[in-house]
Amino acid sequence: MATVSTIESNLALTYGTNRGPQVAEASVSMTSFNRPADTTAYTAGDVVTDSTGAAKALAFPNCGRGGLIVNAQLVVAHTATADFDLLVFESEPTNFLDNAALALVAADQPKLLGIFRFVNGTKVNVGTNLELYRATSAGTDQALPPVAYTTAGATGGILYGHLVVRIGYTPLSANKFTLRLGLQRNGG
């Protein structure tokens, strides 16, 4: 038979001390950038970012301490046949310049949460030179399963990412990319 202190301990582990149940909060974290003002073609495996002079990773703010990534979207101001992968990290990975080949180091591997694939077959033209992609699981055309995450304490609830071209792609000059992560953030 369970004692009162055992039951109280189990409740404290389940619900937190004096805080009530943890409730997931739906939210969206978004990042947006304009790639460099050139039309230099990308080859498979190249990183897409906004700078050829300062290496960086994409930052997704306001993600809280943790939760689930339940969907991802990419909006590209360009109508072209292209496939992209978004690699999402729980803390800042090695940074890359635009149009540089992605070459993650061993220290990046434990930070990698998941890869979200944006393929040409899942895009919808939503306006003149504007396409919306929905993410699928890398390696499949299946709907994206939720991906659990936590953020490193020092980052203030930021997840990081690299957008990578999967097939050759010739961009428009300075075209805009917008990425959204649909989240179920842990409450509390």
Summarize the structure.
This protein is mostly beta strands and about 190 residues long. About 5% of the residues lie in helices and about 40% in strands.
How does this model look, in words?
Strands 1, 4, 7, 8, 10 and 12 form a six-stranded antiparallel sheet that branches. Strands 2, 3, 5, 6, 9 and 11 form a six-stranded antiparallel sheet that branches. It is built from one helix and twelve strands. The chain has 188 residues and is mainly beta. The chain has one domain (23-185). The model is unreliable at 1-20 (pLDDT under 50). It has one helix spanning 4-15; strands spanning 25-34, 47-48, 58-60, 66-76, 84-89, 112-118, 123-127, 130-134, 136-137, 147-150, 159-165, 176-185.
Q: Shape from CA axes?
A: globular
Contiguous low-pLDDT stretches (5 residues minimum) are 1-20
Q: How much helix, percentage-wise, in residues?
A: under 10%
What's the total helix number? 1
Rg, Cα atoms, Å = 19 Å
List how many beta strands DSSP finds: 12
How many domain units? 1
- From the N-terminal CA to the C-terminal CA, the straight-line distance is 31 Å
Briefly note the structural class of the backbone.
mainly beta
Mean pLDDT over all positions: 82
The biggest sheet, with number of strands, parallel, antiparallel or mixed sense and barrel status, is: 6 strands, antiparallel
> Approximately how much beta-strand content do the residues carry?
35-45%
> How would you spell out the order of helices and strands?
HEEEEEEEEEEEE
